Amino acid sequence: MDHQYWENRYIDNDTPWSLHHANPALIRYMADKNRDASILIPGAGTSYEVIELFNMGFTDITVCDISATALSLLKKNVEKTLQKDHSIRFVHGDFFALTGQYDYIIEQTFLCALLPEKREEYVRKMFDLLRENGTLFGVLFATPFLKPGPPFGGEKNEYKSLLSKLFYIKEISMCTHSVKPRQGNELFFICKKLVNPHFL
Ligand SMILES: C[S@@+](CC[C@H](N)C(=O)[O-])C[C@H]1O[C@@H](n2cnc3c(N)ncnc32)[C@H](O)[C@@H]1O
Q: 3-199 adopts what CATH topology?
C-alpha cells in the first residue's frame, strides 16, 4: 500500500470510506474547544470535517494525505464551499514524515489504512506531533475484519494497550454518535499527551 495504491483508489473513485459529510462524533467533540487550537487531520482524504470545523471558527487546521488526488479534491471542495480566504493548510506527503506540533489530532479511518505492523510507529508519531497536554481523538473500528485489509480492524483492548504506552487514555468506548452504517462497530477514543500524569 504505497502512495500509488491510495492514489489509484481516488482516481478510480473507489472510496467507500468517505461519509460525504462531516462525522457528527468528531464535530461534537470539538464543539466546546478553544477556537485558537491547532488541528491536524492526517490521512484526511476528502475530509468533510475540515469545512465544518472552519465554519465553527477553527482557523488553524492542517490536513495531510499521501494522495495528491485526494488533497486536490478536498481543496476544490473547500474552495467551492467556503468561498472566502481560508487558512487551511494542505500537506501532500507521508504522515510519518510530518513535522510540527498540534493541540488536537483527529483520527478517522487512518489507523485502519496502515499495515498493522505500523501501529506502534503511528502512536509514537502521534505523540511527537502533539503539544504537551494535546489530544488525539477520534473513531476506530471496534472489531477485526475477516477479509484482508485495508481496512485493518482491531479491538478495544488491543488499542488500549497500544495507546497507553505513551498516552493517558481518557476514554475509549462504543461511539454513541456513529453514522448508521458504523453503529455498533465504532469506538470513540480520547488520548491525552500529559506533561505530568501525576497532576491528573
Ligand atoms: C481509508 S482512507 C480515509 C480517508 C479519510 N480519513 C476519511 O475518513 O474519509 C485512508 C487515507 O489515508 C491516506 N494515507 C494512507 N497512508 C498514508 C500515509 N502514510 N500518510 C498520509 N496519508 C496516508 C490515504 O491516501 C487515504 O486518503
A: Rossmann fold (3.40.50)
- Domain spans of the chain, in order of start: 3-199
Q: DSSP of 37-89, one letter per residue?
A: -EEEEET-TT-SHHHHHHHHT--EEEEEES-HHHHHHHHHHHHHHH-S----E
User: Is 70 touching ligand 1 by the criterion CB < 6 Å?
Assistant: yes
CA-nearest residue, atom 17 of ligand 1: 66
Burial of 108 (0-12, 13-18, 19+ CB in 10 A): buried
Residue 108 CA, ligand 1 centroid: distance in Å:
9
Return per-residue pLDDT of the chain as tens, 200 residues: 789 999 999 999 999 999 999 999 999 999 999 999 999 999 999 999 999 999 999 999 999 999 999 999 999 999 999 877 889 999 999 999 999 999 999 999 999 999 999 999 999 999 999 999 999 999 999 998 888 889 999 999 999 999 999 999 999 999 999 988 889 899 999 999 987 655 54
